[in-house]
Amino acid sequence: MRKLILLALLLLGGCAHKAPELEGVINKDKLPAYTNSEIDPSGAMAGAELDGAFYDKYWDLKTTDKPEQVLEFYKKAWPGAKVTKEDDYTELTYKFPGAEEGEYMTARVKKDGTIHLGECLKMGKHKR
C-alpha cells in the first residue's frame, strides 16, 4: 500500500505544469504568469516608453485553457483589479501594493488563448 501511495504522489508531481518565467519582470511576486501557459515565441517580450516617464514591459503567453479560467486566476491574484471588457478580450488592470502614482500591471486575456501581461513602471526601474 505504501508503495502505491508513493507511486501516485510521484506521478501527480510529474504532471504538475510549472508557470513560465517572465524574463525581466521586476515584481515577480505581484505579476504571476498563468500556470498552464507557455511563452508565445511570436510576441515573447518587448517594451515601450510611455510619455517619457514610464516604461511598459510586456510578455505574450499562450494557453489552451478557457479564458474564464485565466481571468479567475488573475482576479484571485489581484483582488480589486479593474476589469475592462472588449469584443475579443477582457483586461484586468491592477495597481499593486507599493506602486507609485501611474504604475500598474495588466493581464489581457483574449478569446484565442493569448494572455498579454504588462508591468508599467516609472522610467529607470526596468532594465532594458
Classification by helices and strands: alpha+beta
User: In DSSP terms, counting alpha (H) and pi (I) runs of 4 or more, how many helices?
Assistant: 2
Low-confidence stretches: 3-15
The global form is: globular
What portion of residues belong to β-strands? Answer: 25-35%
Q: What is the residue-averaged pLDDT?
A: 86
The first-to-last residue Cα distance is 54 Å
Description:
The protein is globular, with a radius of gyration of 17 Å. A hairpin with a 3-residue loop joins strand 4 (82-85) and strand 5. The protein has one domain. It is 20% helix and 34% strand. It contains two helices and seven strands, in the order H-E-E-E-H-E-E-E-E. The protein is α+β, with helices and mostly antiparallel strands.
What is the strand and helix layout of this fold?
Layout: H1 2-15, E1 38-39, E2 45-50, E3 54-62, H2 67-77, E4 82-85, E5 89-94, E6 104-110, E7 114-122
Antiparallel strand pairs: 1-3, 2-3, 3-7, 4-5, 5-6, 6-7
Care to give the gist of this entry?
This protein is 20% helix and 34% strand. The chain has 128 residues and is an alpha+beta fold.
List keywords for this structure.
globular; 7-stranded antiparallel beta sheet; alpha+beta; 2 helices; 20% helix; disordered N terminus
